[in-house]
Structure formats: C-alpha cells, structure tokens
Amino acid sequence: MAEFCSPLLCQLYGEDAYNWQRRGEQNSAIEASKKDKNAIRFTGAGTARVYPKGSNVISMLSYVLGDEQWKRALNHYLKTHTYANVETNDLQQAIQDKLGIDMSWFFDQWVLRGGEPDYTVKYDPVITQEGNHLTRVDVAQTHQQDEVIGLFKMPFVVEVFYKDGTSDKTTTWIGEQFTSITIPNPSKKAIAFVLFDPNSMVMKTVQFKKGYDELVAQLQSAPHLLDRYDALIALKEIPLDKKRTVLLETLKKETFHAMKSEVINQLASDETVLDNLLEVFKLSEPQPKLAFIKAYTGNNNKAIKQLQQALQDSSYDVVGAAVEKLCKIDPSNASVYLNQVGEVYGMNNAVNIKYHELCVVNNIDANQHANVLINYAGNTWEFRTRNNAFAAIKASGVFNESLIPHLFDAMLSTNGRLAAPAADLANFLCTNTVNLTAMQGYYKQQSYSTAQKEQLKKYMPILLTN
C-alpha cells in the first residue's frame, strides 16, 4: 500500500495542497450521501458526488494496490485503451490482467454500491496476564446496513505515538462489524495519541473521542496535515483560556493556509491576541486574511485600520470581504468604504456585485444599484456572474418585475449550476405573496413547450398553484 499524490498537483502546490483537496472531495461525497445513497455509477448520482468520490476511488485504488503496482496497472490500462471509449469494467479488467489481482470487491463497494462507512474507534493500554504491554484498538462499523450497503472491507493503518517521540504501527484489514487490533508495546512507553487511518486514506466518517492532552500532542506532532487539522477541529470544544497558547503556537508554526485559517476562526473573538491575528495580513495567500475578516466581530480601531488597508489587497476575494465587514462594523462610514471599491470588478464581477448589494443595503441610491443587480442577473452575462447577482439580490431584498424574465430564462437553462440557484432565489422571493402573484402572472402569459413546463414545474412547483 502507498499514499497516492497527483504528481502535477504535488509538484505545483505541494503534498499538503493535494491532501487538502482530497479531504474536500471526501467531504463533498459524504455530504451528498446524507441526501441519498446513490452509487457513483448511477446516472442520477450528481456532480457533487460523481467527480469528488470518483477522484477518491482512484486514490484508494493506489493506496490498496501500492504505488508501484498501481502505476503498472494504469500504464497497461492506458496503452490498451488508447483513443478508445472505456467504462469502469475496463479498469477493473486491466488490473486483473496486469497484476493478477481480483479487485471486484473494491469496485462493488465503492463504485457499484452507494454510501460510505462510519467507524467508531477507541483504544486502551493493556497489560496481559503474562505482563506484556500492548495497545488494543477497537473498531466498529456503525453505518446503517441494508440490501445495498453492507460492511466495508479495507486495509487500515493504526499508529500509536508515544510521548518519547517514537511510534509503532500496524496494517489490518477491517471487514467485520467489530475488529480488535493489538500493537505490542514491549518498552512500556507512555502513549501520547493514537491515529486510525493516518492521513485519511479511506473515505469515511469516524467517531474517535480523545482528551485534551491527546489532541494537543496530535496537533503538535502528527506527521500529516489532515491529522493535525482533525485535532485542531476537535479543540473547538475546549475553552479559549485553556487552548490559547497552543493555538498561537500553531498559528506561528503551521505554514498551510487551512491550519492558519482554523486557528483564526477559534481566536477571532479574543481581543487580547488581536495583534497576533493581524499578522496574517502580511501573508501573500488570501485564505487566512479571509478567515479573519469573516470571523472577526469586534470594532477595534487596529482591526478597522487593517481592514481599510485590505481594500487595496491583491485578492479580489479579500477586497470584497473587507468592504462588506467594514460596512457592517462601521456603518457610519459605509459610503467612504464603498467609494473605494466602486470601480473594482473582480472574477465574475463578484466585487462589483457586492458593491451594488451593499449600496442597496446601506440605502445609498438604492434604486439605481438595484437595477444594476437585476441587469447582472440577465442572460447577457455568463452563469457565474448571474449566480453572484442572484445571491446579492437575495441578500439585499431587491425585487421588481424586470427581474422575472431573467429568473425564468435561468431556470430553463440546461446548465443546472445556473438553473438551481435561480430557482432558489425565485422560490425565496415567492414567500412574498405580491412577488408570487407577479411571477404566476408572467408564467401564464408565456408560451412554453411541454418540456419547458416540466422543467419549471421541477424547479418551482409553486407556479402551478392557484
């Protein structure tokens, strides 16, 4: 078994960036499974599941087979099917032909069936009757099983880290409801923390309760970013006074943006460390700056001054977030801040749309700016700009009848990433009976095909009431 990292992604951005993307894809697939348990091969699985889970299936194949064997199988697969149409069975067969390994069990549970496993993990240091010291790790599969989703079978690494800085690990295949794993500890070392599946190689959810000292040790010593991040997330429940020093050390030590951002999220309400937090504005990467801007709720003059400087940041995301936060915590000067960004547009016009939204919210020539937002919602713009406009219209409460044709046009789009946000806005606006009457009136005046009517019914069934 091996850890797989996309060579190009690792080369360009580093291993942490790859693993962070992999974790995000795992979360996307698991979130999709909360709605239904469709398999990724099912035509209605949805893009929130198909691509993220598919990517992780490839990573897990590399993990199970080992990097060298995976590359051999993949090379055979690509040469065999050059310029040809392929399906899942072709990859499975290529592994069988090249390596002589039957991976039908893997494709069955990860591709042909839906869902992901849930595990509950706990460990205990044990002294046997013979006086031998060992660590026993108990693992239970706790997800609901039915005729489609059963027990999952995968190899797992379990690693015990000791307070002297050393560790012991073992790899065990887990496929039963309950599995106990033992790791000898002949030197009787004190345990610092235990990791189940270091670096999150298997897509899953895990319940593994750990004490404060264990979490701190994991945060400070775990080799992989994802394990340190998991410890950091678990520290959310710890009182600020107890964890403040540890978090500040982490902010200084960690280089990856996700770690810095999470520390900032947990410390943002603590004015005593404000100077430490404002140091992130010296960084080139935008994510920690965005984390501070979004999490900070005070009105300290130092923070306001830093946010004013952020209006000139090289990141459009930072500029948009900064002007929004300034208008919220210092509304008496909203017009001053907004004037500084009125000519900034940003990717997909996001900053300019935010500017017009905030002008409406702060009642600065509201009608004029509302009309600009409605124009951005029209089909002369690409779908991401239109989606930004939909979000701004929803946030600012803008509505007039000139918006209606734009919403219907978007809901009839074959691009679901445009149609769904438009429908979300339309249904939100229709909670107001005046708006609902206007939209129903518009609908009745149009000549739609049967297919168009079905699509509108799908996205906005309230149109057909009354």
Question: Please, could you describe this protein's structure?
Answer:
By secondary structure, this protein is an alpha+beta fold. It has 22 helices and seven strands. Helix 2 (15-33) packs across helix 3, helix 9 runs antiparallel to helix 10 (257-267) and helix 17 (366-376) packs antiparallel against helix 18 (383-396). It is globular, with a radius of gyration of 27 Å.
Key features of this structure:
466 residues; alpha+beta; three-stranded antiparallel β-sheet; 22 helices; 7 strands; 54% helix
Summarize the structure.
The protein is α+β, with helices and mostly antiparallel strands and 466 residues long. The protein has helices at 7-13, 15-33, 47-65, 67-80, 88-99, 104-112, 212-221, 225-234, 240-253, 257-267, 274-278, 287-295, 301-310, 316-329, 334-341, 350-361, 366-376, 383-396, 404-411, 416-429, 433-445, 450-459, and strands at 118-127, 133-141, 154-162, 167-174, 178-184, 191-196, 205-207.
